[in-house]
Amino acid sequence: MRKITLGIIGAGRIGKLHVENLKGLPQVKIKSISDILADSIRDWAADNGIQNVTNNYKDIVNDPEIDAIFICSPTDTHIEIIEEAVKAGKHIFCEKPISFNLGGTIQVLEWVRSSGVKFQTGFNRRFDHNMSRVKELIREGKAGEPHMLKVTSRDPAPPHKEYIKNSGGLFVDMAIHDFDIARFLMDSDVEEVYVQGAVLVDPVFAEFQDIDTAIITLKFENGALGVIHNSRQAHYYDQRVEFFGSAGSITIQNDNPNTAEVYTQNGAYRDNPLHFFLERYKEAYVKEVLSFIDAVVNDTPVPVDANDGYQAELIASAAAISLRERRPVRIEEVVSGLRQKV
Amino acid sequence: MRKITLGIIGAGRIGKLHVENLKGLPQVKIKSISDILADSIRDWAADNGIQNVTNNYKDIVNDPEIDAIFICSPTDTHIEIIEEAVKAGKHIFCEKPISFNLGGTIQVLEWVRSSGVKFQTGFNRRFDHNMSRVKELIREGKAGEPHMLKVTSRDPAPPHKEYIKNSGGLFVDMAIHDFDIARFLMDSDVEEVYVQGAVLVDPVFAEFQDIDTAIITLKFENGALGVIHNSRQAHYYDQRVEFFGSAGSITIQNDNPNTAEVYTQNGAYRDNPLHFFLERYKEAYVKEVLSFIDAVVNDTPVPVDANDGYQAELIASAAAISLRERRPVRIEEVVSGLRQKV
Amino acid sequence: MRKITLGIIGAGRIGKLHVENLKGLPQVKIKSISDILADSIRDWAADNGIQNVTNNYKDIVNDPEIDAIFICSPTDTHIEIIEEAVKAGKHIFCEKPISFNLGGTIQVLEWVRSSGVKFQTGFNRRFDHNMSRVKELIREGKAGEPHMLKVTSRDPAPPHKEYIKNSGGLFVDMAIHDFDIARFLMDSDVEEVYVQGAVLVDPVFAEFQDIDTAIITLKFENGALGVIHNSRQAHYYDQRVEFFGSAGSITIQNDNPNTAEVYTQNGAYRDNPLHFFLERYKEAYVKEVLSFIDAVVNDTPVPVDANDGYQAELIASAAAISLRERRPVRIEEVVSGLRQKV
Amino acid sequence: MRKITLGIIGAGRIGKLHVENLKGLPQVKIKSISDILADSIRDWAADNGIQNVTNNYKDIVNDPEIDAIFICSPTDTHIEIIEEAVKAGKHIFCEKPISFNLGGTIQVLEWVRSSGVKFQTGFNRRFDHNMSRVKELIREGKAGEPHMLKVTSRDPAPPHKEYIKNSGGLFVDMAIHDFDIARFLMDSDVEEVYVQGAVLVDPVFAEFQDIDTAIITLKFENGALGVIHNSRQAHYYDQRVEFFGSAGSITIQNDNPNTAEVYTQNGAYRDNPLHFFLERYKEAYVKEVLSFIDAVVNDTPVPVDANDGYQAELIASAAAISLRERRPVRIEEVVSGLRQKV
Questions:
Q1: Do D137 and A248 touch (CB under 8 A)?
Q2: ipTM value of the model?
Q3: What is the number of CB-based contacts under 8 A between chain B and chain C?
Q4: Contact yes or no for D133 and A254 at CB 8 A
Q5: Which of C117, C139, C158 is at the close of a domain?
Q6: C259 vs B26: CB contact, 8 Å cut-off?
Q7: What is the full DSSP assignment across D8-46?
Q8: B278 within domain boundaries
Q9: pLDDT tens digit string along B30-72?
Q10: Can you give the pTM of this predicted structure?
Q11: 3-state DSSP call for residue D300?
């Protein structure tokens, strides 16, 4: 078995999670990790068998021993790192979104296409046991041709103010996962987007021209319809999907921490579903990095590529226009706008 | 106990259903029934203890013994019958929609208001055990202030071509129930409507400028959002609702004919939900007519009045414009248009 | 359609329920009802269209116009009434148990056999939509050959002391329904019974040598095993069944009054199942009397006959011995004991 | 953090599973593993960072560097290994059952008591997320005082003939887990056992005087009742529990691989529950070894001790007598019999 050497850029929550999931794999060696607060992670890195800790990501990008890098740093650093990594011939696993700037993401598409490096976008939910079972059932034709998709995606509680400020807004920060799941399950790109949005959870969202509640209607290129329900506050993590087709429907429910039910004279009680994404998508994060490592080791295509990242950002961009201008917006309109800028 | 005398106008499926539900009530006497095919129902009427059968509804409207009438004839006959019935001082239970013509419905509102007769619109779903439990739980504040409403409403199979032709279209024929449920549960009128519609089930719908699949986004006057999912073909009757609020959510599922589950090496199997509205809303139809009889007997307000009928028709009208013009449409715009016509 | 004339003996809760379910049937006329407190039911009887009220059941048994009688009087009056009714050639619907005395029940079997009158035992649960769906699925072979049956049958709360005193004990009063369901679903008589019983709910049961909690193990003649879980206090009505066979299993759950679920930060909540037998078996009571009327009108076999009543009483009798003597008891042993007495 | 050194005796399926779960723990070093087929596991051991592989377990027991051993060899080797390990002062994690011989298990209890080594019995199910949530809810008094316990425990398919022959029979091989869960959840020892058993799945069980289907009734010392349903063939792994108490009930269902449901005109379909114990109790196996390591590192009591192993074996022994002699058997009777032998 070929063994590949990895570098991790960014040791925040998600960077550390990937290290946790990667470190035990026999086909992988994590050689280096970079973080602007390098000193604070030295002990943790040593405990996890990582030799080098640096505060300069270039040390990783320029290390000829490193085959592939994981980009887990803040979104506004992605483009610069990707550019250098592609030049250095590294394979790239990049957290979503690729950038806050569609122009930048288009450049990434170009760099990846011309260089031949592998580039995987971090849409972990495709690897969820429920989502992937729905995909399988759709592929097997169990519910026939696609007519409607319903995605419910709600966080337990809003993030703190500082996070909201730099999040890029609900569409890019939160709904982007749902845009990807929608394309994945419907096996079709999106043609048109319409958003009804509101600030109902916390007025702080209005301060940043953001919203906390949204109903996003999608029209797919294959003619089917879709709708995404987002909220920043459901009190638990609400992640459900319903595929409706010509022959029937396929639904998934939330995952629960246990199956216990209590019946008393006061009615029936169950615990809430798993609290948040780290619990619900725990295994999906493992499968996601495995799929990338497999693609690198065996030189096969990655399952979620740069275009998948781009398409989701296009939808987010159209959604932002729809919210602002209170009208349905065609993806083609966004793409044309980009062409004109160039 | 005061006993009231009833006349039924129209002995189609729904007229007969109301007779079935009314005939055993001790506070009620069904004296007469009219139908254009009077001869074909004489035996059935006799079996159900109805003395008079006529092919002329005026015999009922003009009968001074009759206190209240049920209008179950085709929608395009409603206005004329209502006008005469109100003049004759009869209380009225009228099937939905009141009319295909918002101007007509406004007249009905006026006649009812000025005459003081009771007028109930036949939105039976409000009386469903699931829907009314959701309403109760919302009233008790279990899920807090309203943020989003999700209504799934799909028929098992499309009606036949002749029915489609005269149905008034998906919004008035099918979604109108959902518009009413939305107003009922959210305790708020609708402010704006946006429709994504498609013909995915059967091209015959396109022949009549109708659709068979729709995602209808609502904005309520209270600031909350809503969405209705309609399809003419779900293979079973799909009637679910999810209320999402500041403190949590309330969902209802479909009713099943039994709770049996079979587990074999091939997986787990259950029967489908109840097939269609006659099965699912069986008890709701009973409670609906009881509520009207109670209101007449005790001279209390009806639970679903003419304005409820009018509001649902307004939403249907805005939905039709939205579909045609591919833009969100405000209810106020429809109301202004009506004023200008007058 | 032939119309049959009925007399009802006993106007307690169950007698009144049968009247309610019978009165609207076109093929039936309820002519008379008897009750020791005849005066107290005259108004109710008139309201329900019953002409004659008597305090002497013989007035009914001896009325030549009456085709069939419903015996809803206390169990200790059954034998005498049945004897006279059979002599008078009446068809009989008799509430369970037929008697508190196996010798008496054997006589009933003999009378019915020799006279040719129809005799239905009031095991209403066979007509429950869930139970009958399980039976169908078993018949279709969905779960293969029978291996085990699990019956959970628990009342919401214990009856009052006076009822307990005269109930005949848990086996005859409560578990007898479960014995019948077990025979019905397994399509086999019982060969052996073992009981573990306890007084855990209320010490008052011990005063009458009764128990309130039991686990009853059954061995069927077809070689399969079964177990019944009884309690007098579940806080709601717990009526579930699980058939386990060579090819899989079939389960039914409790029926719920609605499907509403509430999710808040404190977990998920549902209302309890339907409270007690009048709610849960409402439709089963209707179907039960319909099946009897059909058998009489069309001269076809009744679906639950006197032998079904006898077999359930045999099991109850064996259960009582098992509890007293703390050992498994074969049905054959009870039958032999009866033969010796005779 | 103190680090402890481990030796593993037996590298079959369960030995390898424990290595997999132990190897990543920072507080643990697995130094040696023994197996009679030592050569066949050398590569696997090296891959998992174990230095020594031996075919003689004494090399492990006598290694002064080793703090604790895992006994995963066949049951009939346990007593001898435990005796030597206790003498050598090793802490012991021992797979269930401790022995096929109650006399031997009593000796183990004695050795452990007098030596002070820690001894954990491998009842992994106590650590299952569902089982432990039920335990918590019982402890919190959610369902009141214990009245009944219902354990359903069925394997997907029978083991092969050679396994059956050496398994010790259904009670010791399979139901022993259920006996332990029953004691754990009811927080009470068992007083009496009655078994109804049958060979319904495969006649091969009869060849070894074994059964494949059983209903085991328990009476607990606290007065409550219990029942265990076992089958060797459910086509999937059926592991459910219902605690029924004075204030209500607590149930757990099977764990499913996903929550997907498919609805078509042919009804509703779900995948079967997780297939077998390696899938269902995956996390329980991890938590089980963690709990033992914690007890050793922190010198705290083990959560499942030698007496827990003994008590389950006592129940199994009483069950075997009950099956043979077709009568309820008191645990005290088994204990007295043991005393007389000694």
A1: no
A2: 0.94
A3: 81
A4: no
A5: C117
A6: no
A7: EE--SHHHHHHHHHHTT-TTEEEEEEE-TTGGGGHHHHH
A8: yes
A9: 999 999 999 999 999 998 989 999 999 999 999 999 999 999 9
A10: 0.95
A11: coil
